[in-house]
Amino acid sequence: MILGYAGKFLEVNLSTGKIKETVFDDDVLKDYVGGRGLAAKILWDRLGSKWENIDPLGPENILLFLTGPLTGYFPGGRICVSGKSPQSNGVVGSTVAGEFGVELRCAGYDGIIVSGEAKKPVYLFIKDSDVVLRNAEHVWGKDAKQTVKILTKECRELLKKRFPLYGEWKEPALLYIGQAGENKVRTAVVAAKWTHAAGYGGYGAVMGSKKLKAIAVKGTGPLPPVADKEKIKRLIQIVNDNAYDNELWRRWGTGGGGYEFGAKTSSEPVRNWQDEWHDEKGYGVDQFENKLWIKQSWSDFGCPTCCMKIAMVKNGKFKGAITDNPDYEMQAYLGTNLGIFVPEKNVYLSTLADDLGLCGIQTGNVMGFAAELFQRGILKRDDLDGIELKWGNAEAFANLIKKIAFREGVGDLLAEGIYRAALKIGKMKNLDALQYAVQSKGIGIGAHGIRSGKDFPEIISYVCGVQGGDHTSLTGLPLNSGASELMEIFNDSGVFCNFNSFGLPRDLKFNLYTAVTGLRLTRNQWCSNGALKILQLQRAELLLGGPDLKWTPKIHDVNPPRFYEPLPSGPYHGKRADKSDVEDYKKRYYKAAGWDKNGIPKTEILRKLGLDDVDKALEKLR
Amino acid sequence: MAKKKKEPIWIARELSKCSGCRKCEIACSLFHEKSIWPEASRIRIFMLVPGADFPHFCAQCEDYPCVQSCPVKALSISKETGAVLVDNEACIACGKCIDACPGRVPHMHPKEKRILICDLCNGDPQCVKVCQEGGWNVLKKVSRGDRPYKLYARTPEETTRALALKMYGEKAEEFL
Asked: What number of other Cβ atoms are within 10 A of residue A612's Cβ?
């Protein structure tokens, strides 16, 4: 057994109610590590032969909750949620911060593999090796805050009853879905702590399709034993000190972005990306801080940064709204992208998304798309159930958010997510609605544009990434550099918060991996073996897709059309992505990744990596 | 070098500033258990309502009701630091000290039959160090005098209610 792992995984079949433990060979863990990498591997091994026929929202899909060996050791705990994505029909490693991953490892498990579909709503309660499925009918239909309240109380009562002499039980860590997940909304999240979410991928819908409302875990053991404890302590201290030196990063979190990415770098979605520049000083981080933040530092396990804040509207029309910062992505997608530049309105919409269990990015993306269609007269009031979907109208967007979560009226259409909604509307209105959809591979693009060239994504980041529009999995060249997706794959497979690694020596996380597992791993080794395997697997899963959608690289390895339109205003006025630059860079990327000119992984590299079965499966795409 | 004489201390606490980073749990369990072990930490972060995270740990009450309640005299008071010391060999894990504590602070070691109570790290509390280092300053080491320390021995529910009300106002009732 490799050090740093709990050593076993939980298998839960919701159709039969059977729960058992399983293990993976050391060789599998060495190559695929955990989290995202292991997810790609498990899904391929179990579903690969019938991948194209697996409905992401059907009982055959497998839902994964995976930690990695660095979970709890690298400051900033996360857990990776995965499965066949109902957004991209490939695999997304979607991570969410909190204590869940640490609790799970302390309970003796590296992950949970959920298959089948329950007849009635259930939740899974794990107390070390004691694992039960419990009725969740009383929380089905409940929002995030009520679900957290009820299950926290209930689980603590259960623990108290079973262990009356233990003393006071801390709350177990929870992952849950809101009503959006229950209703299989493709932009639904798996959430934690009211406001944290695994958004990309749409796994809240998968959880809902399985009628799994929540998972609660209390682990009473230590984190798994490691190879070099003293070295780990030293490395943790380096991570901490690095964070402590970054005062503004700690003070503002990403909440500084709502103004900055618009005013300074012209890369923020404004009115469905019709612009990326604004200079709305009323939307500055100082306004959020001084008017709304009631907690300056909120953090997850072991985190020195505390990029989370808590915001609350204390008076006026939106009184009682409570969310985190909002962080930059929420400021953008539930703010500027909807023409909203008022902090209170932004906090209100973010709160609604949290409460209903919706991804603020994907939902804000599809709502911005709908609002542009309204602006252009393509969607009329009648199409929108009478909603006057004007830019900046927070009440209108709030109405729409609720309709999406409950799949009511036009909400049912938009609940399909940006790509599917665009296809349907295109058919309905007999036009190409995809030209207004700012997405890649079914996933709305993160709130970092490429046109100004001043933000971190590169011109092919969203074109070639195996997680589509996911801004936390951007790609570029060289493959062994920080610009490449291979580094993101390490973060999401080791499963820790990358936000604590800004400014650190790039090799630190690999050194920490070695100190934890005792296995030597350098960045170059990672990039030439494990990461490449994971990349090819994810690429294969994405391209095989199905059953309702398929991606052809020639057609779909592109930027959204909007990125080729010139920026209409601001200091980078006129700038846009250049198609021939993109094509040229894409060619170089394909070559480096071992893909043929059509973007399909080549036999040569797949065989070299030992992925012969993947090679066979891709034969029909060549 | 002459050994500096220890004086009784107390850990002053400003709970509403707690970020919930749990570095105190990490430091405490690394010091006492030689591993990262949140459940075996003598200081534990409760988050019964998100945002209302706070550390729950011994307040060293002036009258030490836990020490008096122990049927086997496994608990004593350190003359040097004022901490409650547990004699692990003697402790029978009966839980009487938990009931005697107004804040129900002590809890069982998760794997061994003994109670866990903050021992102030022999006068150099590790939790205070990491909390100060990160600039949160929820915890601060002060000299122990004659003050109403026992006020800080509250149950997790009591403290949660107070902090949630402070943060969320009347809205807190929906979460409690």
From this structure: 11
pLDDT digits (tens, 9 = 90+) for A296-354: 999 999 999 999 999 999 999 999 999 999 999 999 999 999 999 999 999 999 999 99
Inter-chain residue contact A298 with B48, CB threshold 8 Å: no
CATH number of the domain enclosing A301 = 1.10.569.10
C-alpha count within 13 angstroms, C-beta hemisphere, residue A12: 27
Closest CA of chain A from B93, distance in Å: 8
Q: Compute the Cα dihedral for A443, A446, A452, A458 and give only its sign.
A: negative
Do B107 and A301 count as a contact with CB atoms less than 8 A apart?
A: no
AA letter at B134 = G
In 3D, which of A501, A493, A589 has the Cα closest to residue A38? A493
Neighbours of B6 (CB within 10 A): 15
Interchain CB contacts (distance < 8 Å): A and B? 130
- Say if the ipTM goes beyond 0.85: yes
The shortest CB-CB distance from B19 to any of A165, A298, A320 is to A298
Q: What's the structural domain count of chain A?
A: 2
CA–CA distances in Å: residue A471 to residues A295, A362, A477:
27, 12, 16
Beta strand pairing call for A122-127 and A212-218:
parallel
pLDDT per position as a tens digit, A401-417: 999 999 999 999 999 99
Strand, helix or coil for residue A398: helix
Q: Which of A103, A241, A299 to mutate to test the interface with B (most CBs of B within 10 A)?
A: A299
Q: Do B21 and A220 touch (CB under 8 A)?
A: no
DSSP class of A589: H
Q: B 61-100 residues with CB below 8 A of A?
A: 93-95, 98
Residues of B in contact with A220 (CB under 8 A): 39-40, 110-111
Contact map slice: B 3-62 vs A, CB within 8 A = 17, 19-23, 26, 29-30, 33-40, 44-51, 53, 56
- Identify the structural domains of chain B with CATH numbers, from first to last: 9-174 (3.30.70.20)
Phi, psi (degrees; rounded to nearest 5) at A405: -60, -35
Q: How far apart are CA A260 and CA A125, in angstroms?
A: 43
Q: What share of chain B is helix, strand, coil (3-state, %, to 5)?
A: 35, 15, 50
Residue of B87, B105, B135, B24 lying closest to A297 (CA atoms): B135
Domain range for A590 is: 586-622
Residues in chain A with CB shorter than 8 Å from the CB of B20 are: 298-300
Asked if residues A293 and A311 have their Cβ atoms less than 8 Å apart, the reply is yes
Which residue positions in chain A have pLDDT lower than 70? none
* Residues ≥6 apart with Cβ < 8 Å to B96: B69, B70, B71
Q: Domain boundary residue among A417, A444, A471?
A: A444
> Of A444, A467, A489, which marks where a domain is finished?
A444
In a domain, A511, yes or no: no
The count of other CB atoms within 10 Å of the CB of residue A28 is 15
Pick from B33, B44, B155: which is nearest to A222 by CB? Answer: B33
Average pLDDT, chain A: 98
Q: Decide if A308 is inside a domain.
A: yes
What pLDDT, on a 0 to 100 scale, did the predictor assign at position A282?
98
B155: nearest CA partner in chain A: A168
Note whether residue A264 is domain-resident: yes
Using CB atoms, pick whichever of B51, B108, B133 lies closest to residue A298: B51
Burial A92-130 (b: 16+ CB within 10 A, else e): bbbbbbbbbbbbbbbbbbbbbbbbbbbeebbbbbbbbee
Cβ atoms A73, A223 nearer than 8 A: yes
CA A55 from centre of chain: 20
Question: Is residue A100 domain-resident?
Answer: no
Listed residue (A581, A481, A482, A489) closest to A535, CA to CA = A489
Burial class (CB in 10 A: 0-12, 13-18, 19+), A295: buried
